[in-house]
Amino acid sequence: APAAEAPAPPTEPPAPAADGLLHGRGVSAGTAAAPVARLAAPLPDPAPAPPLPAEERDAEAARIAPAAQRVADTLRARAADASGEASGILEATALIALDPEFAALAEAAVRDRGLTADAAIAEAAAGYEEALAALGGRMAERAADLRDVRDRIRAELAGVELPGVPERAEPFVLVARDLAPADTVTLAGSACVALVTELGGPTSHTAIIARSLGIPAVVGVARALELEEGAVVLVDGDAGTVDPHPDAEAVARASR
Questions:
Q1: Structure pTM?
Q2: Residue 102 to residues 43, 56, 97, 105, 246: CA-CA distances in angstroms?
């Protein structure tokens, strides 16, 4: 039988709900109110560059495997400090960094086409991410883990610190497009009281770790990135909503 046509994806985010709330999927129960703090910006995309000279390509390709190994070592060190599901998730993420096919694909792009190691890692990760998205379901939700590994390897290659969870002395609600497991684990020692992401689902590693930490979390909030930095919002992990303009009584109730 001919396959049914898939519905066209929406081209615009849904209109604001009539109740004035942002709606998503509550994946970790609880209610909290605090100012918004955004996840630090990711690394910029690799800048276009002419192909590397042939005599430089082997040395450039040889930078990839050691950088990936350092990333895996860091993730495993965090796994050793974590416990339960968080530890297992970080170990699994480390395995992505050590995937020999991933490294080989990037190295081939350097040797055959003269890409920089940075551009080759970005390109290889994009191909893997497309494959995960095509599988759908839980596999598609692993894309956040892959992007985290990509950014960590790129940061190692560039010799820069990877952006991550902001440091705050006062309670805050972390708002991000998505969160990598390694970042979510660091919330345990932070002043974060709730988590809101634009992407993610109930079986994503972000959701699993948020539940294990007892942090209220709402994922899949289409307009999450419109929340203003520093504005007090109320996150309801049971209802799956974010109130961008809570009144004083609601904030006090959430605090209690």
A1: 0.64
A2: 20, 21, 8, 5, 46
Q: What angle do CA 209, 89, 28 make, to 5 degrees?
A: 15
- Find all residues with CB under 8 Å of 64, minimum gap 6, and list them: 103, 106, 107, 110, 117, 120, 121, 153, 157
Q: Which residue has the tokens 């000279």?
A: 53
Strands 217-219 and 192-197: parallel
| pLDDT per position as a tens digit, 172-184 | 999 998 887 777 7
d(CA 180, CA 146): 9
SS3 content of the chain, % helix, strand, coil (to 5): 50, 15, 40
Distance (Å, rounded) from C-alpha 195 to C-alpha 172? Answer: 9
Say if residues 202 and 20 touch (Cβ distance below 8 Å): no
Following DSSP, what letter does each residue of 52-110 receive, concatenated? PPHHHHHHHHTTHHHHHHHHHHHHHHHHHHS-HHHHHHHHHHHHHHT-HHHHHHHHHHH
Instruction: Read off the DSSP letter of residue 159.
Output: T
